[in-house]
Structures are given as structure tokens and as C-alpha cells.
Amino acid sequence: GDHWGYGKEDGPSAWHRHYPVAKGSRQSPIDIIPDEARRDSSLGPIFLKYDRCTSLSIANNGHSVVVEFDDSDDRSVIQGGPLDNPYRLKQFHFHWGGKGCEGSEHTVAGVGYASELHLVHWNAVKYTTYEDAATAPDGLAVLGIFLEQGDDHRWLHTITDVLYMVKFKGSATNFKGFNPKCLLPSNLHYWTYLGSLTTPPLHESVIWIVLKEPIVVSEKQLGMFRILQFSGEEEDQRMRMENNFRPPQPLKERILKKRC
Ligand SMILES: CN[C@H]1CN(c2cccc(OC)c2)S(=O)(=O)c2sc(S(N)(=O)=O)cc21
Ligand SMILES: [Zn+2]
Fold first, then answer.
1. What are phi and psi of 178, to 5 degrees?
2. Cα–Cα distance between 232 and 86 in angstroms, integer?
3. Can you give the pLDDT at residue 259?
4. Which residues line ligand 1 (CB under 6 A)?
5. Which end of the chain is more exposed for a tag (fewer CB within 10 A), N or C?
6. Angle made by CA atoms 203, 224, 196, in degrees to the nearest 5
């Protein structure tokens, strides 16, 4: 099973022991410095075609809460922006902090948000399976959306109201008819760069597209994420799921880009 986590012994600073790519040349997340982002005239707008998406389940995988989609055809895709073809929506999940402190993975000029939503898509045009795409340099496209603490988010309730059903690692339940379009901010201005999965296996296979505008959610809703446990129901050690974020990694020879 997974022998990594977010604790002192098994957390991000230890991941390189089992996953040496942790010290690679295109690791994620990064600290986004807006003034250093290079305008790129070849970057067009991104298009999210989620209208026919089919959510299937919501689950606690011991690292986050994940909503899985039917990715057997191109019914829900992201395209445009830095992408050469449509990428299929496979799942989305969140990263968050402890009470009132940071929690996002990407930071903006050194400042973190309370949480970060990742919508994970894969290049089904070039690769036959998700697993093949997840190890290819242009295999995945992850859309990152910051969550800022403030007023209640009307639609996030659809998710936070069912978290009690997936409290323990390994639990899952039906979650049909959810369209993540309701979790998007009003405008899709973005930064983009070549990076990696932010958890093991840390594959350097992700084209990151991070939206500039956060969505606003309440502290109460953020608190609902913290009823989740890293641990399974049978384990006697209760481990509240929080601070499941990797800190920013060196940019190295990469250039952060933005649309003109
Ligand atoms: C545990 N979390 C990861 C699980 N994954 C995974 C699943 C199957 C195979 C595989 O590598 C062969 C990776 S994943 O691709 O769904 C993602 S995306 C992602 S993030 N935070 O960068 O958006 C983390 C993980
Ligand atoms: Zn993630």
C-alpha cells in the first residue's frame, strides 16, 4: 500500500527516499510570481466542456477526497490554452490546511490560500490508458483553482454535505450528477507551466494550468474537510485529514507563462 503521507516521518521531505524524482527538474507545486510570468501570444483561452460530464463516486483515498468521472469517452474535456488536443476529465480532489492556516499547494508571491482544487485530465488522444498518460511528459493536464476563505459557496455544499459518508480511508459512495463547472471562478485567466504530480509517484507528466481568480468558500465549509481521516475505520489511531499539501518546489530551468 501507500507508505507515504504528510506526517513528520512520511511527509514531503521524506518522499525522495522512495520517489527519487522528488528532486527532479520539473516538480510541483511552485511559488507563482506574477511579475515574472512571461506573456505568450501563442496561448489562447482554455475551454472546459463539462456539460455532458458523468461523475461516478466520491472517495477517501487516505490522502484526499476524490470525485471520479467516467472517462471512457470525450464527454468532458479541457482544451485550448497550452494544450495541443483535448484532455479527458478523470477526477478532482482537494488539498487544504489546518484551522485558519495555509493549505494550497501553489502559492502566489509567497502567499498561500486556504485550499486548492485540482481537476485532473489525461491525454486520451496520444495515450491508450490513464496509467500510460500519467508517466508521459504531456500526459496529464491539471487545472488548479484556489479556494479563499470568505462567504459560503452555494455549490460546494453538494460536496461538503456528503463528506461524513467518506470519513475513513478506503470509504467511497455513489456521487452521480455533479458537474464541476459550478466550482469555477468567473474568469479563466491562468498561469501555465510544465510540472509534476504533487504527490507520489510525483511523475513529471503534468501541464499545469492555475487559475488566477480564487473561488470563495466559508470557514465552516473548509472545516467540513477536516472531519475526514487519513486513517481507516479499523485503525485505533485517529488521524484528522488536514495539511495534505506539498510545499513549493524549485522552479529550476522553467518559465511560468501567461496569456496576453
Ligand atoms: C495520490 N494522488 C495521485 C494519484 N494519481 C495516480 C493514479 C494512478 C497512477 C498514477 O501514476 C501512475 C497516479 S493521480 O494521477 O490521480 C494524481 S493527480 C495528483 S495532483 N495533486 O498532482 O493533481 C495526484 C495524484
Ligand atoms: Zn492535487
1. -95, 125
2. 37
3. 86
4. 63, 91, 118, 120, 131, 134-135, 142, 197-199, 201, 203
5. N
6. 10
> How much helix, strand and coil, in percent to the nearest 5, is found in the chain?
15, 30, 55
54: number of Cβ within 10 Å = 17
**3-state secondary structure at position 210:** strand
- Tell me what pLDDT residue 2 has: 66
Residue numbers of the chain with a pLDDT score lower than 50: none
Task: Point out the residues that are catalytic.
Answer: 63
| Interface predicted TM-score (ipTM) | 0.95
**118 CA: nearest ligand 1 atom:** 23
Q: What's the full length of the chain, in residues? A: 260
Q: Quick one: which of 121, 16, 2, 142 has its CA closest to 63?
A: 2
Give the global pTM.
0.98
- Ligand 1: centre distance to CA 197 (Å): 6
- CA of 64 relative to ligand 2 center, distance in Å: 8
